[in-house]
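Predict the 3D structure for this chain.
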Amino acid sequence: MRSAPRRNSARGSCDRWTRCSSFYGFERAAGPRGPEVRRSADFAARAACWIHPRNHNYLRLSRILDCTATLGLRDHAAALLRCLEGVHREHGDRIGEFTLDRWRECGGSRPSPGGGGAA
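Done. Predicted structure below.
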């Protein structure tokens, strides 16, 4: 009985991410080269709720990136990271370089500092 939740954990994680993504003003889509994450029509209104210096949602997004990659959904994590990098380009003064570096670390675009790199 315990194998069913594990087998469905990646799919369940995607479903949960889809639900919470509306808070951030993001939406997932199927792109020509794999999954995409893009800003939804209400991004500006949603961003006003979470794009502030030192906002706790930056850490939450780091955890989402990390969990998504850990579940083996690296293409989904990479899609979210690309979207967040675009948000940072526009709002970097409120997000900061530390947060961007953390997102990249959690999204798998570079090895963690002092860590054992990718296998």
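The first helix runs from residue 3 to 7.
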